[in-house]
Design brief:
heterodimer, A: 181 residues, alpha+beta, Alpha-Beta Plaits, 4-stranded antiparallel sheet, 8 helices, 4 strands, 16% strand, disordered N terminus, B: 447 residues, 2 domains, 5-stranded antiparallel sheet, 14 helices, 11 strands, globular, binds protoporphyrin IX containing FE
């Protein structure tokens, strides 16, 4: 049995609630085209099509796969709500299987015997960013809520009675936003 | 990966504390021992092992008390366990709870430098807990245990804590505790939650397949790890007067006070879950073991009945996170065996009487990190997972600064501001409770 007792924690760089999660893999010889095809299929599947905004993994802000070095290497880069290392076994249980069609074309994925092996597969690929910055705080959940709220506010503003309604003192913070919203 | 649907648990070898429910009500005692001599330490282990063997062979109805024996990492060292074996324990266990304080939120008033001695120090080697249905039975077993170490001059009792469970099952904040425990595959106990498949035994006992299909990392040799479980105990002081006063100040009337308190816990004082009884307490529901844990949150994603930030829902979100794919809640469960300590603050008293009261929190599981530490750090001490990063568990969260607590409500959500911390960590330890054969192995070491 593999033991991962001593794998040091490398939670990635965290800014606010999100941490960057960056993995570098080596593409199996002869698998470049199959991997490109798998990535295209992913891109065309519901949730991943540009504009779908419904990536099944609810706690990532965005994610990208990049083939580089003449398709011999694969980068996976994302921003994750929370310290991703705490979720390693969870990744092994679900999301990793979701991406199995992609990862089966990189070194080390095939025949992973147990969760300890999956952990070392991920840790072996992870590199912490040397610099990482974000342009907004908050989690994916808060953003979705904020966007819903912004859309509702626009609806209010489009109503001709909005000005009168928003002049109630309790609504002053909203009125302050209303002129430019 | 292996699947283990038909596991047979070696129930005779597993210490009863992990899987067996306890008598209720009960009284109990925790003892911590220091071993100053390897040979006498091993002699103690052999004698405790004999006691546990007696306990095992007694018929369940004749059993008048329950003894559990566990060791800290320092304790295993003091017994002369070989280095290769010591090194095979998980990092968290080897470091011990005090070393994890920063991570766990045990800082400030809860920091190890302020813990009750000798908690968190290298002097804690063996933890013994004795539970019995009444004080005479407790004294009888405690005396039997004492007679096993009284003549061992190099075995010192370094800490002692009496505890109890009230007939109502309620602890110091006034809520029934010890209800939400997982159904475990192969335990032989009747499942209590029809909304959830029983959890694999390997999540709680070493040597069996767990929810990932693998075996939890086990210390070597095999005989030492098999049928063992990790125990976490924490002495948690509860500031009951401050808690009551806070609720009194925020509520319009006594009825709202009771509702706010229930929203913080996720259950009513009787134990009735908000998920099944959203508007008022239902004592018959709280008292019914076949109904009081038979629920999920799927019909209440917004938290109108039970807030997403309530203690119980944080500590076990059940199906709340199912659609998110990030988290498999089955990987973050625990068996809890908490008890009360200290006198209860009489009803309606709002001023602190200076007494030390609270709970001895006890966790049993196969993974310190992804069970106890994960729940404590990601779910209780943080709010990222519910999209409220600034909020902590309103009842037990480790916050130095006051936190907010939000309750979904129509037409407008209710938010409690400036919830102060109500719980202070007085100390604790990470322990390993070996199976009976492993205990014998420890007692017979001859390194
Ligand atoms: C003084 C501190 C604490 C108090 C007063 C307290 C109190 C309670 C109460 C009243 C319940 C509801 C009854 C029940 O389901 O049994 C509960 C449930 C629970 N608590 Fe705590 N608790 C404390 C600390 C903790 C800590 C530190 C953890 C974990 C690290 C924890 C984990 C849980 C879990 C897992 C449940 C069951 C949730 C479920 O399955 O629905 N508690 N607690």
């Amino acid at each position: 049995m593999t033991t991962t007792n001593d794998v040091p924690a490398r939670p990635g760089v965290q800014v606010g609630s999100a941490s960057e999660f960056t993995l570098f893999f080596t593409v199996l010889p002869g698998h470049a085209q199959a991997l490109r095809d798998a990535l295209r299929d992913l891109q065309n599947s519901p949730g991943y099509r540009p504009g779908d905004y419904e990536v099944p993994i609810a706690s990532i802000h965005e994610a990208r796969f990049v083939l580089f070095d003449d398709d011999t290497r694969l980068l996976f880069a994302t921003s994750f709500d929370g310290p991703w290392d705490a979720y390693m076994e969870d990744f092994a249980a679900k999301p990793l299987q979701l991406f199995a069609a992609i990862f089966e074309h990189v070194e080390g994925f095939h025949g992973l015997p147990d969760v300890a092996a999956v952990k070392s597969f991920i840790l072996g690929a992870q590199v912490s960013a040397a610099a990482y910055a974000r342009n907004y705080p908050g989690t994916v959940k808060e953003h979705r809520r904020a966007l819903r709220l912004a859309a509702a506010f626009q609806q209010v503003l489009d109503d001709p009675r909005a000005e009168e309604a928003l002049s109630h003192p309790a609504l002053k913070p909203l009125l302050d936003e209303a002129s430019v919203a | 990966m292996t699947t283990g649907d038909d596991v047979t648990l070696d129930l005779d070898d597993i210490q009863s504390g992990a899987l067996r429910e306890r008598p209720s009500p009960y009284v109990g005692r925790y003892l911590l021992l220091r071993l100053d001599d390897v040979a006498q330490g091993r002699e103690l282990v052999r004698r405790l092992h004999a006691l546990l063997e007696d306990q095992r062979s007694a018929s369940p109805s004749a059993t008048r008390a329950w003894l559990t024996v566990a060791f800290t990492y320092e304790g295993l060292k003091a017994l002369g366990v070989p280095p290769s074996s010591l090194d095979s324990f998980p990092r968290e266990f080897r470091e011990g709870m005090a070393a994890r304080a920063q991570e766990l939120g045990d800082v400030g008033e809860s920091g190890p430098e302020r813990w009750e001695p000798p908690l968190g120090s290298p002097d804690v080697h063996v933890a013994v807990s004795v539970l019995a249905p009444d004080p005479p039975a407790l004294e009888a077993v405690a005396e039997r245990a004492r007679s096993r170490y009284a003549d061992l001059a190099s075995v010192a009792v370094v800490w002692r804590q009496d505890c109890y469970q009230l007939p109502s099952g309620r602890t110091s904040f006034g809520f029934k505790d010890g209800i939400g425990n997982p159904d475990i595959e192969g335990s032989g106990l009747v499942p209590r939650n029809s909304r959830e498949r029983p959890i694999k035994a390997g999540e709680f006992i070493l040597g069996y397949p767990d929810e990932t299909g693998s075996l939890a990392p086990m210390p070597i040799p095999d005989v030492l790890g098999r049928n063992g479980t990790y125990l976490v105990f924490r002495k948690l002081h509860t500031n009951v007067a401050a808690y009551r006063r806070y609720l009194r100040d925020r509520a319009r009337d006594r009825q709202e006070e009771r509702l706010l308190a229930a929203k913080m816990v996720g259950r009513w004082p009787s134990g009735a879950p908000l998920a099944l009884a959203p508007d008022r307490d239902e004592p018959s529901l709280g008292a019914d073991p076949h109904r009081n844990n038979d629920f999920a949150y799927g019909d209440d994603p917004g938290g109108f009945k039970c807030p997403a930030g309530a203690h119980s829902r944080r500590a076990n979100p059940r199906d709340s996170l199912e659609s998110e794919l990030t988290t498999d809640t089955r990987l973050h469960r625990m068996v809890r065996r908490g008890t009360s300590y200290g006198p209860q603050l009489p009803d309606d008293v709002l001023d602190d009487d200076g007494a030390d009261r609270g709970i001895i929190f006890v966790f049993a599981g196969a993974h310190l990190k992804r069970q106890f530490e994960f729940v404590k750090t990601q779910w209780l001490n943080d709010g990222i997972f519910i999209g409220a990063p600034a909020e902590r568990d309103p009842l037990v969260g480790a916050h130095q600064q006051p936190t907010d607590f939000t309750m979904a409500r129509r037409p407008i959500r209710r938010r409690l501001r400036d919830v102060p911390p109500f719980v202070v960590t007085r100390g604790g330890e990470y322990c390993f409770a070996p199976g009976l054969r492993a205990l014998r192995w420890l007692g017979e070491l001859d390194t």
